[in-house]
Every structure is written in C-alpha cells, then in structure tokens.
Design goal:
single chain, about 280 residues, alpha/beta, TIM Barrel, about 15% strand, globular
Amino acid sequence: MIDLHTHSNFSDGTDTPTQLLNKAMANGITTLAMTDHDTVAGWEEATLHLRPGLSLVLGSEISCQTHDGISVHMLGMLFDPTNVDLMAMMAETRDNRIGRMAKIITRLNAANFLVTMEDVEAQLSDGATLGRPHLADALVAKGYMKSRDQVFAEVLHNDSPYYVAHHSPTPEEAIALIKGAGGVAVIAHPMSSLRSRTVSPETFDAYVAAGLDGIEVFHRDHTQENRDLLTGIARGFDLIMTGSSDYHGNGKLNQLGECTTSPEEFEKLESRANQRRVIKR
C-alpha cells in the first residue's frame, strides 16, 4: 500500500517520525510519504529510523492562499531540501505563524476563552511547526472543548470570527518553488468543503501551467461526486491521481492506509522528480 500524505509531531501530528514509520509498517504500508506542514525538520529522524520493507518519500505540505483568500495545501515531495528559495519560503511561512497565533489568541481572550501563547507552546514538540491544531489542543487541555474536532467545528474554522489569515505563497508560487527544487507538486484535498471554501475546477489551468504534477483525488473529505469531478480534471490535464490518509495520529480520525495511491500512479509521480529520492534500506 502507498500512502502519500501523513504528519508527525514535527507539525500537527501526534506521533514521532519513528512511531509513524513503525505504525505504517504494522498497517501494511509499503511506501509512505511524511509531509509535515511547512517544514523538513522531521526528515533526519525518519531517515535514521527507516527499516527494511518500507520505502520513504520525504516532503512537506505547503500552506498556500489564492488571491481571493482561499486556503490551498500543496504537497511537495521528493525535492532537494538544500534548495535555498524553497527553504526560505517555508521559513517565512513558519515565522508568520507566530504573529498570526498571537492575534487569534487575542480574539479568543476577548470572548473569554482564556488561553495564552505559553499554553499553546506547551502542546508543541521541539522543532514543530506552530499551527491552529496546537491552539485547539490547548483549549481542550483547559477544558473549553472535548476534542480538536469540536474546537475546529465551533471556534477555529476559517469562517469563524477568531480566524486570522497568515502569509503564504499562492499555489502557483508554491508549485514553481517545488519544481525549482526538483520535486513533484500534488494539490492536497482540493474539494474538501470541511476546510471552508474550495478551489474551483477553473483554477487548475493556472496550476497546470505552473507545473502541477498531480491531484489528491482519494481522501476521506472528498465525496464520490468530488472524486468523479477530480478524476475528470486529472485525466483532462494528464495529471497523476493520488490517494492518501492525511494521517495525524490521535489528532484526527484519519487512519493510515484508508486511501492509497496505485503503484502505477506512484511510478509516474516519482519519474517527474529530477532525481530518484525515495529512500530505502
């Protein structure tokens, strides 16, 4: 089984990279992509603890925003982590998350959700990318809500009065940087209405022109209608179709291997990188 979208505790997952790899093997995964948000910080541990029988695809889920404010996530995989331009963009995005978090906390405090930056930072692993899931965990720890899912449903969704946008590249800019670093670009869960507004089919013209390689068609947040629409778009543009769990450990209901990528589609995806960067033992 091939699962091309998972997270460790270097972003908003709850498993260490080592635990993630071990769970993947226990669940019959043969090829796993670890794609933490806007960081490559977990790559070293994952590479060090990789065992025979599992192929590792290293990447990052890059936070993007369209010109009209729609949040888009772009999976960059198999890229060169020493590429200066791509690393600088991710660093800028991570830095901006701190100021954004402070603004969200101020809005929550005004509504009597009494949480501090220190409460949020207590939920992070060393080196992890700060994000709203950590704020959700802090609100759960303080007893305001029972779970991350409840916090996002009631308080931290993109249309809530507490939401604050943050600096991020456009999808086209992210694709260009990923391709410039020799990697492959796959748009993640593009029709997930659970994530507020979604991209329209018409936007794929610009993404393909920028170098988009694939679409995450098979994802738990996509309805069958969504999957049919995305399959048609992928075939029309000759894009690769992937399937992924978007696993976060205990942070979400998603389970490893619940959606997968076919070996044929993965072979095509890997061939689009400028080097063979899948890691094996």
